[in-house]
Amino acid sequence: MTRYTLSHLETAACLWEAVLELRDRPVTNPDANSRVLALRKCVDILGTAALRLVVVGWVDAVEAAWRAVEGEYPLSFDWDFVPRWIADTIDWSDPRHPVIRRKPPGANAPVTSTPPIGDDAASGRDGHLALLARARAALVAPDTFDPPARYALINAIRASEYAIAACPLPWPIEVHTAVIEHRHGMNIYVAADEMLLDAEIGAYCREYWSEIDDARDPNALSDAKVTSSYFECHPSESCTKDRVRLAPVAHPSPLAAGSIEQGRYCVLSTAHLTVHTASCLDHWASWPPSDRPIDIAASVYGWFVPTRAIDDDRRAQLPQDLLRLIAFGRARGFQFLLFDCDGSDVDGLPLHHW
């Protein structure tokens, strides 16, 4: 003799309650309308008592389906899971014999597996886009998602909501930065892309255009042109551009990357220097650092020269060709110039054959 527990009886009651709810208060969409018509026809042909016995026979199946998703299903068993299981699983096409639908595997087989929540492949911007694609697929073709896959998707969306709510920066982004050094200190600019950053720098240059010897109207120049002209001509100001990766707490950068000081330099041929300037650099590299007009370092085949702003007293000690090259590097965001005898010639810069 089959024995039923209180849990079985409660499940049977939930099933019957859900059938009556689906019959009397259908959801207003085409699938639900066709389902309710088939269900009502089934009631008319079988009768309430006979249909109730059929529904009770689904207890084991619905409880097995519930056990498969109980740990991750976000909503209630009685008011959500059971009605959804009936709508997704029961075939009402034969009014004399409603049965549990068996879908054959194949191209249109239901989706039953989803990436685990918290997996690296499902995190970050790409993971969020993938989640949106899964949600769209579920809306476009709901019949291809069986209940476990649907509930897993709901859970993944919920986890994504929590992650975004917990942090204003849900995944790493790269921003563009600039530092303008001037006699009063420095200005720091941050923008989402390089075009916006250039517009900010250009606005600064136009505001202080009168500090350089240039008769052109800065408002008639592009952001790139006004910026390069301003910092090449200004005697003491500099602009350094860079890109910075911002990461939320959930996506920390490796410790090593944060502990290593980094910089940017460009390599120029020593042919861009005059013989006199090259000789000066050779001598200065051998002097004590406090005696040098500029803090340089000798390499095997040339010299490292910083591009940061120089005070007027030190500028007066530097050759004009070196000052122009320093301004060239600073305007392009380089922190150092490496003059190397094997370096490439740069178009637009003077060449001295020696």
Mean pLDDT value: 82
Q: Walk across the major sheet and give the strand order.
A: 6-9-8-7
The termini sit apart by: 108 Å
Relative helix content: 40-55%
Instruction: Give the tally of β-strands.
Output: 9
What is the N-to-C succession of helices and strands? Answer: HHHHHEEHHEEHHEHEHEEHHE
| Quaternary structure classification | single chain
What integer value in Å does the Rg equal?
A: 36 Å
Largest sheet: 4 strands, mixed
Helix tally? 13
Provide the number of structural domains.
Answer: 4
3D architecture notes:
With 354 residues, the chain is of the alpha+beta class. The chain has 4 domains: 1-102, no CATH class; 107-171, no CATH class; 173-259; 265-340, no CATH class. 46% of the residues lie in helices and 13% in strands. The strands form 3 sheets. Strands 6-9-8-7 form a 4-stranded mixed beta sheet, with helices on one face. It has a 3-stranded antiparallel beta sheet with strand order 4-3-5. A two-stranded antiparallel ribbon has the order 1-2. The radius of gyration is 36 Å and the shape is rod-shaped. Mean pLDDT is 82; it is low at 104-122 and 251-258.
Short description:
With 354 residues, the protein is α+β, with helices and mostly antiparallel strands. 46% of the residues lie in helices and 13% in strands.
